[in-house]
Every structure is written in structure tokens, then in C-alpha cells.
Write a structure and sequence with these properties.
The protein is 70% helix and 2% strand. It is an all-alpha fold. It has a domain of 199 residues. It has a two-stranded antiparallel sheet. It is globular, with a radius of gyration of 22 Å.
Amino acid sequence: MNAEVTLPLFVATPLILAAVAVISPWKILRDILHIAVPVVGIVAGGWLFAYTAMNGTIAHTIGLYPAGVGITYAADQFSALMIVTTMIVAATANWFATATGETNSRFYASLTLILVTGVNGALLTADLFNFFVMIEVMLLPSYGLVAMTGGRNRLRGARVFILTNLAASTLLLVGVGFVYGVTGAVNIAALAGVGAAGGPALVALGLVVIAIITKAGIFPVHTWLPRTYPLSSAAVMGLFSGLHTKVAVYMLFRIFVVIFDLDDRFTWLITILMVVSMILGAFAGLAEHTIRRVLAYQMVTGMPFILVMFAFAPDNPHAALSAGIVYTLHHMITIGALILNAGAIEETYGTGRLARLTGLAHRHPWTAAIFAAGAYSVVGFPPFSGLWGKVLLVIAAAEPGDMRSVVVITAIIVASFGALLAMLRVWRKVFWGRPMRGVPAGLRIRKRLLAPSAALMVISAGMFVAAGPLIDAVHTATDQLLNVEAYTAAVLGDDAVGVVDPENPTGGNR
């Protein structure tokens, strides 16, 4: 059996097991399924990474239709690496949800498995319309998860979340429709190089990109994220932090490399938007009043750290994109750990408000240690993954040696300082100071609540220690991402139809 025929199983398996979870009357089975499926996904993603390392990009078209007609799934080392990391975050977030009792809701497990279905499909699809479909598969259970978990204001947050994502999804669908109307194709490989040609195709693709950056929470369409994520439960916010925005980042990488062919016309536009987004996200958290709202702005400031590398990719594609991927992996693990750590505090004390918490370092040294480790990683201090992420970003940005380099490196330093201030503020308010009064002497944060965030921080520390193998893996993944010829050959095969001529994208298909 050829390995490529297994790609649809990454989508079908969690979807089928989501149905099993819905009809199962046994909570223990539901708890097992919603943790075991992402764990199996980690193993399967690791196998896929190893297989594509040996055999290159693989692809499978559903129903064995000609490429360009059927729905195609494709995998390379980049998509495999993203699957592994998203499934790590999903497994730990679901582990935390089980520990807090959120899975007492009959539909919680099945909703998270449907979300995993959409994530895998979005990371493997080679078709813009199918990407839209998989985004909707992700969003439908997310609407339920946002509305059914969290505090008393969760419905207010759910309303903003739903309206924003519906608007972005509508724009995405319109953009994909215009792309098809202009070029006659929505297959990513068939559109290779079309964005660099300009004209109506560029405008249509611009709508797609705007919709995706809205979902990624990039300035100026970023405020919905810190207004909605913290109003859900910590388990759901941890799940979303590693899945929703990072799927958007993944597709932006794929579109920029394959469809835009590393076009250098937008370097200053990208630079300005990302620099502003960095600074806003870094310092806006200083005005927030809960731990998770501060962390939500660290999510906002993390996205431009990744995407600003597009401004330097035309100069040195390998170094810039590798730096962006390393920072993506670090950010998923670290922010997930911090959110779940904050969730353990909320579960124990019933609040995450900075004004109501103090002196927790005396009562809960392990909780304080996990938060301090996460804060070190966010800022870029050793011995955690954030150091290598930011070092690689600065090296890639410095290479051109022009004004862009000066602006971006300055912004990275200033935004990192802002993140440090935000983390210090949380530390001073929540962990420092005198022990809290009126708290039962025996009250402790349970180990089972701390274990998920501790596991993620161990991974972050492991990424620091094993920087050599990690960076080697990212380099090979970047090589395959940049090998557009191999990607298009695998996706389109020998019988493709509807392939667009990049030199004349509106003149009909070849």
C-alpha cells in the first residue's frame, strides 16, 4: 500500500471517533478518546515526517480523480511537523480539561475531536476551497466550545468570536470564489506563481490573505482575539492557542511560497503591519486585569514575530522561513503551557484577576516555577525554546543589513521588553508579595492540574537543549516547503487539468 493513501485517515479517523464519543454513554471512553486521538496523531505525524524525509512530498486525490478536479491532500515535512506540534497542544489541553471535569459535558470530547479533524484537514489540504471547508469544520465545534465553557461572560465572548469568524469565513469564501473565477483553479499547486503575476488574480488572492490574517489575529484585525479567548475556559483557550491561529499561519506560509513565489513587492507593507502588531500586542497586555487576558496579548504579539519573516524571505528564503517555523513551534508550546498554568490557578482560587491574587509563590512554588519558566521562554531567556526562536529571527532579519533590518530588530527588542514588563506585572501581582489572607491553610493547587502545563514546559526546555536536532528538522522541513517543483509534481501528477499559466493567469488554463 502506498503511504499517500493514508492521508485521508488523518481526517476520517478523528471524525469517526467524534461520532463514537457522541453516542457513547460512558464518560471514561469519551475521556480516553479525546486524549488518545491527539496522542495517536503525534505518532502518526512523526511517522509522516520520517516518511516524507525519505520520499519527499506525497499527495493523494480523493476518489482518484485527476488532480485539479478532485480534492487533494498533500504532506511534506513542514505539514508533518505542524501536525505533531498541534497534536501535542491538543493532547495536553484535553488532558487539562479532563482533570478539571469539563468533560462531564457529554459533547465536550466530540467537539474537540471534530476540531482536530478540521486542523488535520487544513494542514494537509492542497486546495484553497477545501481549506475553507476545513476551517469551517474547525469553527463549528469551536462555537460550541466557546459558548459552553468559561465564566458568566462567555456568551458575550462567544458572540464576538462567532461574528468575527463568520465575517472572516465569508470573506475567505468570496476570495476563493474570485480566485476560481479569475484563474479557473483553486488547487494550490495549480496556482503556483500566480500571485507574483499581479492583475485580477492578485486582488482575488488578496481577499484570501486578508481573511486568513484576520483569523490569525494580526493588526489591525486583532482585537477580537483577546476579547474572546480569555472568556472561555483555560482548556479551550489552550486548545485554540495552538490550533486556530497556527493553522492560519501554516496556510500563509504555503500561499506565500507556492502561489506568491516569495514575491518581494510587499516587503515594506509586511514589515510595517507586523512591527505595529508586535508593539501593540507586547504593551497592550499591561492594561489587562486577568492573567489570561495578559497572555492573550502575548498570542497577538507572537503572530507578527513569525510572519515578519516574509519580509526577509525574498533575500534568504531558507534562513527567514526556518526562523519563522522555529518560532511558531516555540510559541505553540510556550503559550499553551502558560494558559494551562493560569487555568490551574483559576480552578483552585475561582478567579484569575490580578487584584484578587497575591503571594502564590509562597503557597505554590511549583506553579510559580512553571509560570516563571513560561515567562522566560516568551521573553527569550534560556534555558527554554524562546531563546533560539528569537536568536534565529534576529539573525534572519539582520542579513540584508538595510533599513528593514534596523526597524524589525528594534521592534523585536522593544516588543520583547514589553513582554517582559507584562510577565513581571503578573509575577508581582499574583506570585510576589505577602501570602493571601482568608485562604484555607490546606488549599493547594492539585498536581493533576499542573501536570499538563509542566509537560509542555519540559518540552520547551527540551527544545532548548536539543536545539541541534530541532533546527536540523526545521531546515529539512523548510527545504521541502521551498521545493515548489516537488510539491506541484506530487499534487498534480501526470494527469492534471486546470493548471494555471502563471505568466497569463487570466488567459485560461494549460
